[in-house]
Amino acid sequence: MISALMEDSEKKIKDTLEELVSIQSDTGTSLEKDVEKYLYDWLQKLDYFKSNTNNSGSYPLKNDSLERAVVWGLVKGVGRKTVILLNHHDVVDAYDYQTLKTYAYQPALLREMLKNVELAKDVEEDLISGEWIFARGAADMKAGIAIQLSIIEEFSKKQNFNGNILFISVADEESLSLGMRSSAELLKKIKNKFDLEYTILIDSEPHQKTENNEGVFYTGSVGKLMPVVYVRGKKTHIGDIFQGFNPLLLLSQIASETELNSDFSDVVENEVSPPPSWNYFRDGKKCYDASIPDSAGGYFSVLTLKRTPKVILEQLLEISKQTFENVICKMNKSYSNYLNKKNENEHKLPWKTNVKTFSQIYNDAIEQSGEKFLLDYNLTIDKLKVDIKNNIIGMPESNMALIGKTLEYITDKTPMVVIAFSPPYYPHISINDFKELDNNVSDIGNAVVRIAREVCYETYSKRNYFMGISDMSYSALNESENVIPHIEFNMPLWNNMYDIPFETIKQLNIPSINIGPYGKDLHKFTERVFTLDVIRQTPRLINGVIEYVLKNN
């Protein structure tokens, strides 16, 4: 029989989740500040933080026009070992709810309204069961916040427990992860101020159970890289088509060679990263005329478990060069047939394979045009900043403008492929990649399985990588020599509208793990989280893991 104390604790977690969900906090908007205020006020109501006023705060994000912040609170115990509880308080918007958008943040009302909607069988079964909380952000990831707040409150009442617990709630995870990227410096400051040793970071993103109904936890997170492919062609009237070079032909062939290309998929044990897929593909024409476009560009996403930016760049350069050669062969074959039909002598077109990285053309522009180029480049960036702020252009698309601007200032005017990288970049991370670990962390996989069995009476299985992309990526950095120079020099927006504090992240070097509640249909209008996991099972599991990690070796 559940004690009255446990019932009260479980009710409080559920009430906290419903309060969090009711506060709309769409990612990339000023609405995120409303939930930040709630979290800050929630911490200040605890007796511990009333007595320890320097142990919590609201840390402003660097250069953020929306004036968002990271909310943090540190509960001190005995010793230096520290567990970080990480979460994000932004959610994706609720446009997918359509006519039900009004109810997206009200679980009780939404549950009733969904009864009038034709739903998939599994969704309808979960709705009828009454065992799930439906709402935008319920699973991703305000349930995780409610669980972590309950843990912070519990530890704040303990006397002289081993170690320390640091709560960190960040903005912008669903967009560009500015919150977590800014948190690196905050974590460094807190570590130095309170003389802490960061033992492990626990994220609480939701998980989906296996076919065998096993819970899942993750000892790392997948990486994400967004290569940009820009093709400069040669403009001509369609009546003189062989006088020009259509960049769409080459770009489409590169896209065909990379889309769903499993050669880009990494394999670690029995886990495989999905192959790449293109997110954006456009020509550079501003209006209609009877000519081919002079440029085209796009970008795609690559998910990584092992591959670094260096390896992917080399792979993409090779594909682009081979594809360029194939396209020239195709064009020459077509041209030859065309000349034969005109009874004219055959001769080849003048095109040559020409593939470069952004760093190469940028250095060429500086060498050939110097200050004139840099002045125009910086003016272009200033304009793009305004356009991005006003939602006229997206950050990834702005790469095209900067590559095009750079090409204006080099002497080579022939058709060319330029390879670059676009924000955001997420390094892959796994506990398996750490050379040194705390003794209790090195065995964390077996420990979580055991604790789940003994405390929650449930079976859990380990995965090396959380495939949903998470802020865990910014808690450590491996193979930095194959990451930093290739990102910094080939990302047009680097240090202008986007940066990652690589050196600070390297210094922090925090192993991470994801333990979160059972959730379904993230980013869909049927998003939901399993109530029992939120109020009882996951808090117990995380508590058990914290106590295991912080116990004396």
TrEMBL record:
What cofactor requirement does the entry state?
Answer: Zn(2+)
Task: Mention any Pfam family matching this sequence.
Answer: Peptidase_M20
List the InterPro entries. Answer: Peptidase_M20, Uncharacterised_RocB
A GO term for molecular function: hydrolase activity
The source's superkingdom equals Bacteria
What Gene3D superfamilies does its record include? Zn peptidases
Stretches assigned to coiled coil = none
What is the name of this protein? M20/M25/M40 family metallo-hydrolase
Recorded source organism is Clostridium estertheticum subsp. estertheticum
